[in-house]
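Technical appendix A lists one of the benchmark inputs used to test multi-chain prediction within the project. The record comprises two sequence entries:
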Amino acid sequence: MLKAPALIILFACIAVFLTGCWSAREIEDLAFVMAMGVDTDPEGVRITYQLALPAPGGEGPGAQGGAQSPVWVTSVAAPSIAEAMLRLPAVLGKVPFTGHTLAVVIGEEYARHGIGELLDYLARDRELRDRVRLAVSFGEAKEVLEVEPRIEAMPAEYLFNLLRQGEATGIVPPADFLSVRIAYANRPRLQIKLPALQPAPPPADAEADPAAKAEEKPPATAIELKGTAVFRDDKLVGFLDERESRGVAWLAENLRMAVVTVLREEGPLVQLANYSSVRFSARKDNGGYRLHARVSQDGNLTAWPHPEQTITHALLKQIEADLAEVVADEIHSALERLQQEFNADILGLGEQMRRLQPDYMATLDWNAAFPALIVEVEVRAAFRRVGLTIR
Amino acid sequence: MPKQKDSITARQLMLLKLSGITGTVFLGAVNLITSLAGAQGYMAVLGGGLLSALVVYLATTLGRRFPRLTPFEYARSIFGKWLGSLLGLSLVAFNIISSTLVLRSLGDFLITAILPDTPISVTITTMLILVCGGAWLGIQALARFNEGLYPLGFLAWIVVAGAGLWRIDPGWLLPLFDAEPFALARASVVSGSLLVNGLVVLMFFNFVEEQSAVLKYSVWAVFAGTLLIGALQVAVVAGYSPALAETLKYPVLELARNVSFGLFLERIEALYLGVWIIGTFVKVSILFYAAALGLSLVTGARSYHWFIPPLAAASFYLSFQADSVPQSYLWESMFNEHAYFYQIGIVGVLLAGALLRGKSGAKSHE
């Protein structure tokens, strides 16, 4: 005879596991969506799915000598995103599972029409994770999903890792789904920014491949990161190039391995910046406030154009001013385009102002105030290490 | 009247109270507090902790006056048979409404976030059958089970709260005093209701062997519950921003979903949820047990067991009265916004009556 606590443990276990049978889904009935692409279509929207294929013969992806792709790319058009997702089982014969989705690529044209519907759908999806990366492609998103990388068996993993590396260097902004949701919920004080990318042109040797037919265009094998897609509310309004993107990153503390080059007459002087921080303060200005941003960064000297000259601490201090100027230029060029051309506060300067001067911020229409906001930038750049040689 | 055989320790009572507090935190409480107090939700939780401690103090003061009686019994001793029975029945009704709302809320949660293909009737019925089993076995069995399980549940809470706090942006909590005082007060009342947890101390004081330790242990339970819910509140608001947090139906689930250890150990929320749902089972079982016991004492029946099936039937019927998830959420919110007033009200009325009429357990036994 079971004792009472043992009976309760039994009950509790039943409570946890019993009802799960009803919603059980066998793994062979699932189609694992590794990446999605969203484009416009005459019918409304076209979703392209990059689906993981089961490994033949129980072996890993790319078995059979690497001839078979580990993914299948297919598209579904529908009037709405939700309907496109619901139509997918009719195409696949399986239930799409987005719990392992790594990236969602949005076509430029679709992004210009607005991504609000997409964000709403993704936020309601109980399977999708907040760490999934979003990005905007020049041209169609489908083309990005069709890239067949050589470095990674699973294209979605390649894209995911590429975006994470790009975030660290500052040439694209971080765009995990959580960051995008936070920005969308706090607009216009903080607008959405997404990485911009496109398939890299196919390698030159691909055309010389005798196996390839003359009329077939060889698939791209790499993706290029191309800066930042700037949104106002949910609509794409333009792009920042890589240099301007890094200007944004300096003000957002996103950098962990940015390569900063100071061009001097004698040659390039290069720093690998692996630390950056920013501190905002609000200063009174003609009855209002202006923002002061103090950016601090430091890193390693990785290229030195004076092989005959010993690197000393005093010498490093002299060139730090040049480095600070390069960083400040990047920030100013980004600010100028964001304020004057796009009127989109992807830096979250409005949110910073709200935190510092909430009463003043409450009086402002930020869409009208942002272009006129005065932002003072002070950069403190430093070299900490110089590598394994002192010349 | 049924003879009371079961007894529990003060520590078991503390863990039952804590289990009840955390047994529903993942359902909708954090969302409600956030929607009322915004970024200052954690302040509301601190305020709720104080309100809850007040109820605990009054309940233990009352319990000490009637060390051998349940509130259903001493209510009649203080106010006479009819009025006392009416107060006792109000406690029964409160417990059944509380447990029904928790059951429905759990059902909504499961079909929304975990088991989309499972009918809500199945989840509610399954839990209801288990709850009946738990209540049938009694407070002692539940307390011992909970004593063994709860450390695991609390560890899960610490992991989720800690992981959530790890990636917050404290700037979202600024400015520090931005909430409307009235909204903050309402959110404090909601937190207080959550932390009082269905008057567990009032209803089970007389089951405790070392009654002098009840106040200390109960305050510890309130303190731990306040810290935990406060930490979750900060993790949600400063991790997701107040504007986004207000839109999240189950913000604690969102926190749990994002707990990972590197890129190799992810999607482990099922582990947390399993432990938490068992906590919900304990909470509802305790409420059911108290309701059945109350009915048996009010009616003079020989056993509380016979009241469990009709109470379950009533709860089953009531849990399907809401037509949709938003409607059940609205009802739950309304209940949570007003439950504290009943909780402090019933304790206050009983204590005031006992003081004014000079009643105590010793006299009633004489």
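Chain A has two domains: 26-56+68-240, 253-391. Residues 313-342 of chain A form the longest helix (30 residues). Comparable benchmark entries are summarised in Table A2.
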